[in-house]
Amino acid sequence: MRDNRGTTTPANWGYWVSVHQNFCPHKLPYFLAWHRGFLYRFEENLRTVSGIPDMVLPYWDYYTHPQIPPEFLDTTSPLWRKERTGDDVTEALSLDPFADDVINFQRGSGNAFETKLENAPHNPVHNLIGGAMGDVAISPRDPLFWVHHANIDRLWLAWFEAGDGRHMPRAYQNYWQGSFQYGDAVEDVPRVWARNPSRYMFYLYENEAMPAALPPTEPPPSTSTATARATTLSTFSMRGTAPLRPASVGTTALGTSQSLVLDEHSVTVDVALTAQDASQVRSMLLQPQAAQATAKPDPLRLVLDGVQLTGLGAKGGYFYKIYVNLPEQAGVNQPERTYLLGMLGSFEIGVAQMQAAMQGKGMQGMHDMRAAGGKPDARFVFPLSEALRGIWPTDLDTLSISFVRANGRAHPAKGHTIHVKSLRVEADD
Q: What is the distance between the alpha carbons of residues 202 and 182, in angstroms, rounded to a whole number?
């Protein structure tokens, strides 16, 4: 497929990279359903090109085997890519999408499975592998993309098959009207096909059970207290252990901003609150949650403006988990998701830049961005109210925003990865 010339034919590997660039709905409705059709049409093409009529895509079950499968590490194989910067995705894994209270499916419905699965493990797996996989615009160049997305598709099916109130829109509802596009050379896929792959696409998975546990990690050696503190932070993943809050790198007031440079370290930015600010925040948190469940932005939010990757950051192999008010001491009996606001890595930044380029100009804006060779600044807004309600701090003198580094390799490269022109916490009047 790589030897075939011309990206206008689906027999060429580049055709599928181009389709993903032009049509994939990241951070948008139908993220899972569109990719299910994408896999289906790609798999059909694999059969045609290979001449093997029963050829199927495998899936990479990283909840069981988080290291890159050895077939992809053979330097003589077409499955190998030299630019990967990580080989272990343990830090990307989360059981949050499979929690008992995640019963809604589509984005915007509240506690939605599609949103949670995209946030983790989908995005962090891209980040930790790095290279092409860490760049949304070219990620299908890496053969790992396909076995990763086959597993994401399997996890979606496993969630639905688990029952216990988990539900998607019915096949006859408007949600499934219309079809997905995959370029001029491939037939569209009716949206409703994605709801039931065994009925419309005629495939099943060998294992259709949700993951019940995270893979074990080796305990880090602790030769000193300082070493133990550092390794506790670096290995704090989606595992429910409470870390020590990273060292602060600065203090800013509510509504004011400061710049931030991220590197191989975990850091915290303290946002100081006056007595009036603290009273305003408490008032927001006391409002009924139902009143906040609208299309309006959260009245209390973390904003990152002017976000750009450095050359090192664009290579991937890392990401940052962003938390609010992490505990000072380990051993606090709270799950990680209580404090977690979101993730930030090369993949999320690429998605945000793509959406910024397309805003108002559609696909032409993205093509113009590529032609110019530059990328717009990315912007991220993380709601704070839900997390703070879960913690319900008695002391609101400070809001602490922590960026905890996660790595895909034991010895990651050191240096600046992400520049943030403006970090601030905004509160509506």
A: 20
